[in-house]
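Dear support,

Our group has been running a series of protein-ligand predictions, and this particular one with zinc ion is the one our PI (initials K.S.) wants archived with full inputs and outputs. We had some confusion internally about which version of the output was final, so please treat the block below as the authoritative record. The input we submitted was:
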Amino acid sequence: MSKRIRIIEGTWNCTSCDTKGILARHKKCPQCNNPRELTGKESEFDFGGTDAATGKALREGVTDETALELAGAGADWFCAYCGASNRGDQTLCKHCQAERTQDAKALQEEEAADDEHPLRAPPRASSAKKTLGKVALVLGGSLFFCCSGTLIYGLWSTATHDTSGQLVRTEWKRTVFQERFTPVTLEGWQDELHAQPPRMPVNGLGESAGVQNIRGCVSSRRGSRKVADGTERVCSTKTRKKACGTEEKCQTRNKGNGFQEEVCRDVTRYCDESYEDCRNETRYRQEPVYAQKCNYDTYQWKEVARRELSGQSGEPPRWPELSMSPTDRLRREEHYVLHVEYDDDGKKQATFEPKTEQEFLSWKPGQPVSVTVTNGGDIQKLLPR
Ligand SMILES: [Zn+2]
Ligand SMILES: [Zn+2]
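Confirmed final output from the archive:
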């Protein structure tokens, strides 16, 4: 990186005689001979601006030996007695001959830029995948609109309230199923079938279905599997940063005496370059899988008879009677319902289902009750009142 240094001279305005644009090399006004002071912004210099893109000063650089020597003399200081500005390398006030004192005010010379740190770091590669988030957001929004009606109804119907009512009627139903261990022929995959003799139940217990007479095996489709079927080349266009020549970048530092030092360098310029990003992806296809499917003999519990009994308010629940052989088994189901009227003098009706006979028997038709019920009419809690 080649480095080019220029000295830019600022200008100031005399507040005593109102002369504008006096070159910084003059520490006294060329018109009225008044010294440049700290007051009245006389020592705030105008350097004529810089180019926005490069930072390069728009003004010509100084080549004049005297001015260059002045620029290198350090930051100005202001005489504590007469206020005149003086060269940084002088110890006596040029205007009144007073000595530079500790409390004399001075301008600041900015630190020189560090050569180790480039003026501009190369830009980072641009990141992709920004559009994905937007798409998800839009979908989320429409989902909310389409379902909010249902959601509100759902919230209303599950809201509960406590009220009082009356148990008007009770009901029970009991069913007994008679099941027999019955020979059947089933189909199964050969590799999953293991021949085994059946064991008959005794009093409906201890049975084993068994697998017998595996036969008539034929090849059948069992499913499919994914298999690699070559590769395909997948490409997408991406962008990356690429060095494309150089560009000039300048920095200035104030020397605190009406001069600026400008350092310009040629730095690498980066441009967007599009390129094809390609890779080989494995292609897959579905392949059918076949296996041997066979018939075999086994046993299953089959319903051979059922009896049902039901009763209304007051009648105690009973089990139906069934006669059975020793290899059969019985399966029992019981079902209890309480009918409740509540709200508006019993205009609303709902049912409640006790789980056990004991719970069912604790309720008497006609008794007053407290109900916790949803707007949709489901009884959540039922208590005697
Ligand atoms: Zn003047
Ligand atoms: Zn002085």
